Amino acid sequence: MSETIVPLAIAGVSHHTANVTTIESFRFAGEEEFLSSARDRFPGVILLQTCNRVEVMVEGNQAGLRAFLEEQGRKDFFVHDGPGAVRHLFALASGIDSMIVGEDQIIGQLKKSLADAQEAGTASPFLELCINKAVHVGIEVRRRTLINKGSVSIGSAAVTLAEAEIGTLAGRHILVIGSGEMGLLVAQALAAKNLTAMYVANRTFKTAEILAGKIGGKAVRFDELYHYITLSDVVISCTAAPHAIIRRKDLAKAMRKRCWPPEGHPRPLILVDIAQPRDVEEGAGTIDGVRLYTIDDLRGVNEQTMSTRKAEADRAHGFVEAELGIFLRHL
């Protein structure tokens, strides 16, 4: 089937070939401005930006999309078009393409990207059809297979990583920064651990209170952030801030307060930054006592989960191919 019959092109970067720095530099800080600039070039455009991928989906062809992204200063990106783009979209919604195979968050992220495009007036009927079908395929894959069995999300993977690095989370003090969907996933994963204390920080204190109430934690004000960093064994940061919120200079001061005796080395701090763009300022990992981890470090967690989900992923691939054939025939 030719791309004139399937006028879909998808381009971008993801965890498969790009690290967290590359993905961060590819992001579009102003999503509304990006959609507005693309409106004159394509009948429809949708922008998907998550912690480990940035993808642009257009009603059009790969040559047009490639030229547009190069004009936007982007390079070294993958491009799918025609039936291959539909296959990629279905696999994406199914969780097959995710860093943490089988994670469920991609369904909500696709829905939100479509809603944002609809609000901006860039969601064409054809793109709406493609996204809605992909969401349907993703839900059916999870219903028919065990690909999402167990705790699978970037948030829960961050907790798994922290636990592996520190030995056990039992009796520890944990600070979660950010009260959005990712913060909730992190907090839920932590709630199952035998923690001494869990703190939740957010720029809006009321939002922090709501999340803390759900998981039995303590809400803390943002201006007390470094005080609670000083008290914590593990900090997991996952805000939607457009800039770093943990500054190297301020973190270094906080770490000096963790020294006993005062002239000794600070008590170690596990700092996991799963935000995109990153919450932790460049160079913070060089501070004495800080062990900084990013989304790139979660790849090992995926390798562990993938070994147990390989058969389910194979089944999911088969279902995706079957649904792709049906969709193309309907088109």
Description:
The protein has 331 residues and is an alpha/beta fold. The chain has 12 helices and 10 strands. A 6-stranded parallel β-sheet has the order 7-6-5-8-9-10, sandwiched between helices. Helix 4 packs across helix 6, helix 4 crosses helix 12 and helix 5 packs antiparallel against helix 6. The longest helix has 32 residues. It is globular. The model has no long low-confidence stretch (mean pLDDT 92).
Record the SSE blueprint.
Layout (H helix, E strand, L loop, with lengths): L7 E7 L5 H7 L4 H9 L5 E6 L2 E7 L2 H10 L6 E4 L1 H12 L10 H16 L4 H20 L9 H13 L6 E5 L3 H11 L5 E5 L3 H11 L2 E3 L4 H7 L2 E4 L10 H9 L12 E5 L16 E5 L4 H32 L1
Parallel strand pairs: 5-6, 5-8, 6-7, 8-9, 9-10
Antiparallel strand pairs: 1-3, 1-4, 2-3
- Mean pLDDT, all residues: 92
**General shape:** globular
The fraction of residues assigned to DSSP E strands is 15-25%
- Rg calculated over all Cα atoms: 21 Å
State the distance separating the first and last CA atoms.
10 Å
Number of distinct beta strands: 10
Give start-end ranges of low-pLDDT stretches.
Answer: none
> What's the number of helices?
12
Order of helices and strands: EHHEEHEHHHHEHEHEHEHEEH
**Derived structural class:** alpha/beta
The strand order across the widest sheet is 7-6-5-8-9-10
Reported for the largest beta sheet, the result is: 6 strands, parallel
Q: What is the helix content?
A: 40-55%
